[in-house]
Amino acid sequence: MLSNQPQLARRLGTFDAVIIGLGSMIGAGVFAAFAPAAAAAGAGLLVGLAIAAVVAYCNATASAQLAAQYPTSGGTYVYGRERLGDWWGFLAGWGFVIGKTASCAAMALTFAAYAVPPAWQRPVAIAAVLALAAVNYRGVTRTARLTRVIVAVVLAALIMVVTAGLLGGQPDPARLTDGFLGEPGVYGVLQSAGLLFFAFAGYARIATMGEEVRDPQRTIPRAIVVALAIAVAVYAVVGVTALLALGPDRLAASAAPLVDAVAAGSWDWAVPVVAVGGAAAALGALLALIAGVGRATLAMARQADLPRWLAAVHPRHQVPHRAEIALAVVVSLLVLAVDLRGAIGFSSFGVLVYYLIANLSAFTQPAEQRRFPRWLQVLGAAGCVLLVATLPWQAVVAGVGVFALGVGYRAVRLSVTRR
């Protein structure tokens, strides 16, 4: 299908792919997502975290299985087209691009919130977008190298959060059950799962970069599962620590929950360290998002589901440079208008639709292409539908509206083409 198109260079090994996935998952989500999750479910967010992890694992196995069969850029956009038909692929690609474009803006704003005073935040957020787009423009190996540094800084900051919260503070085990599964009950827990799922979606970046991974049939499945397992473990430890240090009510009201978890104890000197970690986490997520969205845009442009001029690959750096430039411009404009918590819900909507189609696509694979049992795809698809239905209604309405806009765009383009 893509044999006549310019191809990207295969430069990434398993370690690089795992690091890029971790840079996306252990990013700004761990510094921000626990607050809205606590507002939705209180201490029940830990159950929501477990649900999100199960759904993410099911989705990861589907993505790994499909990426091994179709090792090209585009992720579920390509898988949906190959397994279910062009319209399904378009819906997956559209969901990924619009959801993750909103995530780019949210991550840029999160970085600025940790790095500078409020008056400077939007200009600094735009500067971060442009700077990291320039890094991606120079080539994927530079992206992987910078992501290694960022992941190391973030993990060091999270170790500080856990240590300060447990040893320097006053952790109270009763806070883990305070209001547990009370009002708003099961619905709130499911809503927290949908919001926390936002943090786990980074493994998609590994699949969307399938055209740049060496030995993709072996590397992609291994990298996705390893990166997800590490991220789940980190989120569980950090989530428990935040609840022990703050309790669900204070956690829900916090704009910077991990900074507040440290500040609640006697290790005030560690607060700047955590702030640096939060800024680095946001940069890591933004870096990987720009790379992933750029490659999904490349795949859609190759099929004319987005303007074909976006399908260009730079002759020297071998990256989708026009797609990444266009993305940087759009994200910079969004930074001027988006709300962080709303962006998380909207992103979750788009990505859950994306993974619903991934599970449906993997379900159709024949036995010789299967690496995981079909019941995992059934569970994953059901989980995606359930979490979408329980997201905040504003995110659902906005998501349905933007998907309708995308469907209208493609329908008009196909009508004009036929004429």
How would you describe this structure in keywords?
single chain; Amino acid/polyamine transporter I; 0% strand; globular
Order of helices and strands: HHHHHHHHHHHHHHHHH
The total strand number stands at: 0
Which of globular, elongated, flat, extended, rod-shaped describes the shape? globular
Largest pleated sheet: none
Helix fraction, binned, reads over 70%
CATH H-tier superfamily:
Amino acid/polyamine transporter I
End-to-end gap: 24 Å
Q: Mean pLDDT, rounded to whole units? A: 81
Beta-strand content = under 5%
**Count of helix runs:** 17
Enumerate the spans where pLDDT stays under 50 for 5 or more consecutive residues: none
CATH architecture name: Up-down Bundle
> Domains counted in the coordinates: how many?
1
Question: Can you put this structure into words, describing what you see?
Answer:
The protein is built from 17 helices and no strands. With 419 residues, it is mainly α. The protein has a single domain, classed as Up-down Bundle (Amino acid/polyamine transporter I). Helix 5 (76-83) runs parallel beside helix 15. The longest helix is centred in the middle third of the chain and has 38 residues, at 216-253.
